[in-house]
Each structure stands twice: as structure tokens, then as C-alpha cells.
Amino acid sequence: MPMVHVAQKKPVEEEIKEASDVVADSPHKIFIAGISGVLSSEMLVEIVSSFGQLAAYHFVCNEDLGGRCAFLEYIDHSITNKACAGLNGMKLGGCILTAVQVRNEASPFYGIPDSAKALLEEPTNVLQL
């Protein structure tokens, strides 16, 4: 039986090197917060790359947020909405991810988008029995 050649997946380190470290402000920029301390930047790249190939990826510790966050953009812009839907609310390492599209807001280059601020606040007791 002939052997079928299967292309090997690129290691995560190569995917990070290929993606730009600068995520320009655009309607396709994604902000991710709620990243657990047990997840490394490389692990997060592997998770977000399951939706498609990254054009740009930037991982930072944000003082306003008091934690780690990431900004990214996919090469195929049609993936943006699907990736946000798939990543938002995902529980990883005991934390719940918040993933939103940065809609060209007047925020600093790597600041928290206004659309994510309400999602990052502590939940309140709405109904108590």
C-alpha cells in the first residue's frame, strides 16, 4: 500500500515568528482578556490558531486590567467573528476568556476596548433567593 504524504503542522514557535508582533488598529483586531497565569503566550497562540492562521499577535500585561491580555488578527478576515464567538466565554486554566472585536475605538493602541470593559467587571447579584 503506498504511503500518503501528510504535511506536518508547523510548530507553534514558527507560527509566532511568522505572525507580526504589531497588531495595527483595524476592524479585524481582536482583544482577549481573562488569560490564566498558567497559560503561556505560546499556548494561547496554539489555541487561537485553531481558528486560522494569524497575521499578527501581541501578548501584554495590562496595568489597567491588572492581568494579561492579547491582541491578534487573522490573515483571513472572515474568521474574526467566528473566533470571537468561539473564544469568548471559553474556560481555560480556571479563568474565563473575554474575546471581543476592537471596533476602531478611541482607545490606546494596546488598551482595553470600551466594548470589553463591561464584560471584565465583577458580576453583581441580580436576584437573590
UniProtKB/TrEMBL annotation:
Entries under InterPro entries matching the protein: Nucleotide-bd_a/b_plait_sf (IPR012677), RBD_domain_sf (IPR035979), RRM_dom (IPR000504)
UniProt keywords, alphabetically: mRNA processing, mRNA splicing, RNA-binding
SMART domains (alphabetical): RRM
GO biological process: mRNA processing; RNA splicing
Residue ranges annotated for the RRM domain, each copy included: 29-100
GO terms, molecular function: RNA binding
Name by which UniProt lists this protein: RRM domain-containing protein
